[in-house]
Design brief:
176 residues, elongated, Lipocalin, 11 strands, 8-stranded antiparallel barrel, mainly beta
């Protein structure tokens, strides 16, 4: 078997998240500087070894004031914890193109095993002869599990920022 090495195509990928704001709307964000490396046997997704990291300083919610608050010690504490990382531990095929990816997510030196739902779109050649692969990932985590516990109470009850974070990523890979 031949080992294939894949890297992220940053211009056609987005590593994002959503969180409830004021208990009734979602705020979306993404990380603009990410690194994804995947190795597998003959391009077979279920044999993949996946690693991911994001530069936390690149967090982008479309609001500079909110982004600066996320970078502060109240949330990510970029000065002390500049990266978020993920390393796969097991990939399970559920159905054709559908997988579960278990792995270790590290945020602020807290590492927890999480499971992501993955939709693998297969392989394709682009117009320039590059072999590409498509991958959609979704999952959920509780931000407090990773030391992201800042919040503010609302006058009407509830809190400003929800605990559940929805992870949403669309990734295009390039065979190296």
């Amino acid at each position: 078997m031949t080992k294939s090495i894949w890297a992220i195509d940053p211009t056609h990928s987005e590593i994002g998240f959503k969180v409830k704001h004021m208990m009734f709307t979602n705020v979306s964000g993404k990380f603009n500087e990410v690194h994804v490396a995947i190795e597998n046997e003959d391009g077979h997704f279920e044999t993949s070894d996946i690693s991911f990291s994001a530069e936390v300083n690149s967090v982008d919610t479309g609001n500079a004031e909110r982004d600066n608050h996320l970078r502060s010690a109240d949330f990510f504490d970029v000065e002390n914890f500049p990266k978020i990382s993920f390393k796969s531990t097991k990939i399970t095929k559920i159905d054709e193109g559908q997988f579960k990816i278990a792995g270790d997510l590290t945020v602020k030196n807290e590492t927890k095993n999480i499971v992501l739902d993955a939709e693998y779109s297969g392989l394709m050649k682009d117009p320039w002869g590059n072999t590409k692969a498509g991958l959609s990932l979704t999952g959920k985590i509780n931000r407090k599990d990773f030391g992201l516990s800042w919040n503010a109470a609302l006058e009407t009850g509830g809190v400003l920022v929800g605990e559940e974070i929805k992870l949403i990523s669309e990734i295009q890979l390039i065979k190296q």
